[in-house]
Amino acid sequence: MIRVGIIGATGYAGEELVRLLSSHPEVKITHIMSKSFCGKKISELYGSYLALDEMLLEDIDYEIIQQDCDVVFTCLPHEPSIEIVPKLLACGVKVIDLSGSFRYKDAAVFEAWYGIHHTHPELLKKAVYGLCELYEEEIAGADLIGNPGCYTTASILALYPLLACNLIQKDSIIIDAKSGVTGAGRSEKLPFSFCESHESFKAYGVTTHRHTSEIEEQLSFAAGSPVALSFTPHLLPVKRGILATIYADLPKGLEISPIEIQGAYEKFYMGSDFIQILPHGSLPELKFVVGSNNCFIGYKIDERLHKLVIVSCIDNLIKGAAGQAVQNMNLMFGLDGSTGLPQLAMYL
Ligand SMILES: NC(=O)C1=CN([C@@H]2O[C@H](COP(=O)(O)OP(=O)(O)OC[C@H]3O[C@@H](n4cnc5c(N)ncnc54)[C@H](OP(=O)(O)O)[C@@H]3O)[C@@H](O)[C@H]2O)C=CC1
Ligand SMILES: CC(=O)N[C@@H](CCC(=O)OP(=O)(O)O)C(=O)O
Predict the structure, then answer these.
(1) CA distance linking residue 116 with residue 245, whole number of Å
(2) 63, 74, 187, 327: least buried by Cβ within 10 Å?
(3) ipTM above 0.90?
(4) Beta-sheet strands, E only, within 199-339
(5) Is 184 in contact with 9 (CB distance < 8 Å)?
(6) pTM, full prediction
(7) Are strands 27-33 and 174-179 parallel, antiparallel or unpaired?
């Protein structure tokens, strides 16, 4: 059995990890950790978790982690992650970090977009970007994973194969993405509270959202040269799910058929359990993915404007956070990537 510790188990991403891992056939959760709720049962926060009450929420103790864990998931805000992850690595455990702190190759890019000083830039060389469909081999050999962001997962999975095959113009990309409110985390933030967000709809982070830089970095690897794009997130009045509608110009002077687009996606994602490519003109909805680790991608060519419109959907807490983290753990420990992960959505 893989012995797992979860730091930040009380947050939305941590809670989803506890849920997924408690039924994983190869995992024993040995410690769940919190800063503010030490000594409490997890059912005091999440009422349905009575079955897990023999485990109390604990403070972080590195000696105990060294003895009892093979891998630790850190589900923390970005700044505490930068300080805690190196101490975990020094214990000899593998680490899967869900924050933005270990996703970039260049600390200067992280610092510019997050406004946080990175005190351990040396670890960025060692960290592997945990998008399983792109970096399976590197993940298998990694000790530290920077688990991707939720908007970025939906966006990169939709665009990477098309840029790699030169099927869209890299200077024309516009990503219009919408997220459920759990994307903002459990801690109280007034603009994201029920009354402020329910039956309303708004854009935020316009031109400055930090995920712009994460998407650009990864897509530059696909294109083989820098990519700059426009990314606008919106807050949807639903609990979970991300739907990104993406616009890009088709290559100038070239006729691109749906068969070429479909072929590029299907070839790139051959053997990937969680990527579902719909036929030309069929578009996914949030209810196709919520509750599962899937990413559904649909597209339509706009012949009149010589553009491609792509719609990509994930569950922000599963493929966008905890599910992807489990998929990473599976690969790091030589398991099939899909072990213990939900394939089907909660349709109703
Ligand atoms: N929500 C989402 O959809 C996604 C989130 N993420 C990322 O995952 C991480 C966790 O997000 P999320 O679960 O939403 O956040 P929450 O706000 O819901 O939870 C944050 C967790 O971090 C713990 N925590 C906060 N500050 C500290 C600290 N100084 N030291 C130790 N623990 C601390 C809290 O512990 P406690 O209150 O128990 O003390 C809590 O368990 C973030 O980096 C986020 O950006 C990534 C992708 C998607
Ligand atoms: C709705 C909402 O607020 N979403 C979050 C993104 C959640 C996520 O992916 O977080 P990290 O990339 O920071 O880990 C936001 O826009 O800040």
Answers:
(1) 30
(2) 63
(3) yes
(4) 202-203, 230-235, 242-249, 275-277, 295-302, 307-314
(5) no
(6) 0.97
(7) unpaired
Residue 235 CA, closest ligand 2 atom number: 1
Express each pLDDT in 16-41 by its tens digit: 999 999 999 999 999 999 999 999 99
Question: Ligand 2: residues within 6 Å at CB?
Answer: 99-100, 149-151, 179, 183-184, 211, 233, 235
How many Å apart are CA 230 and CA 176, to the nearest integer? 8
Architecture of domain 151-316: 2-Layer Sandwich (3.30)
At 151, the amino acid letter reads Y
pLDDT digits (tens, 9 = 90+) for 298-347: 999 999 999 999 999 999 999 999 999 999 999 999 999 999 999 999 87
Q: What is the DSSP letter of 344?
A: S
Please tell me the distance between residue 33's alpha carbon and the centre of ligand 1 in angstroms: 12
Among residues 348, 177, 316, 325, which one has the least CA distance to residue 239? 316
> Topology of domain 2-126, per CATH?
Rossmann fold (3.40.50)
CA angle 83, 58, 180 (to 5 degrees): 70
Of 69, 132, 150, 313, which residue is the catalytic one? 150
2-126 and 151-316: identical CATH topology? no
Contact 114, 88 (CB under 8 A): no
295 is catalytic: no
8 Å CB contact between 332 and 142: yes
Domain range annotation of the chain: 2-126, 151-316
Strand partners, 233: 177
CA of 205, closest atom in ligand 2: 16
- Please report which residue ranges of the chain form alpha helices under DSSP H: 12-21, 62-68, 78-90, 107-114, 123-126, 132-140, 150-164, 194-197, 211-223, 258-268, 323-332
